[in-house]
Fold this sequence. Notes:
By secondary structure, the protein is an alpha+beta fold. The chain folds into 2 domains: about 1-135, Fructose-1,6-Bisphosphatase, subunit A, domain 1 (Fructose-1,6-Bisphosphatase, Chain A, domain 1), CATH 3.30.540; about 140-250, 3-Layer(aba) Sandwich (D-Maltodextrin-Binding Protein, domain 2), CATH 3.40.190.80. It has helices at about 1-20, 35-55, 85, 160-170, 180-190, 200-215, 240-250; strands at about 25-30, 35, 60, 65, 75-80, 95-100, 105-110, 115-120, 125-130, 130-135, 145-150, 175, 195, 220, 235. The chain has an 8-stranded mixed β-sheet with strand order 4-3-5-6-7-8-9-10, with helices on both faces. Strands 12-11-13-15-14 form a 5-stranded mixed β-sheet, with helices on both faces. A two-stranded antiparallel sheet has the order 1-2. Helix 1 (about 1-20) runs antiparallel to helix 2 (about 35-55) and helix 5 packs parallel to helix 6 (about 200-215). The protein is globular and about 50 Å long.
Amino acid sequence: MEKIAIQAAKEAGKILTENFGKVSKINVKKRGDLVTNVDLEAEKKIISLIRKRYPEHSILSEESKQLKGSSEYRWIIDPLDGTHNYVRGIEIFGVSIALEYKEDVILGVIYIPFGNQLYFAQKGEGSYLNGKKIKVSERKIDQAFVVYDSSIKLDRGKTMLHNLEKLTKETFSLRMFGSSARSLSYAAEGKIDIVIDYHDRPWDFSAGALIVEEAGGKVTDMSGRPWSSRSRGYIASNGTLHKDIIRILKSN
Length: 252
């Protein structure tokens, strides 16, 4: 399964790089949410590789949603995380593939095509970048780099803006990448200290969440409870900062 996950991520990544700057079709799923012909082609490649080897496994994908199987294994995939960046010719995107067993994520792969960066984690075995073990940072809150949810337009009650203002008062710097695959992989290798996303779905973050945890970090849902593939949104950190983040977000 590890080999299939890595093969699928790399072959999907090849499709993304070969078609970069050559998108032929863009559809609007809903306002502010796009899908391209390249998303669909990469997804088709991943699903075909998994189904050929493990036809009994279920698959949850951003574009095809749920493909039911008879097994207790389920693959959770995002063939192109960072579609809006991709469409604009911005090289911040990646492929995300996770595998869960009985609703517990046990394997995660993120592939960043530009840079040929393969992040991999298996539960209990640590996290790796191109075969080299990685770990989260040890920075404190006043030194922290924060990657924050870029979907501010969805902030109807202004909660995100209010929390953003509170965070900027206690942390060092803020970024918005528009790709959880990129943000969480950076967190796992200690370049970023905090990642907060209010609206991401399991295909966006399941692989990255496991990779961060196996690198020594901590990931929870937005309330500070353990995350799962049923969560909507997440908070990821180097672990030592997690109580600070929850405190800041819950403060008046």
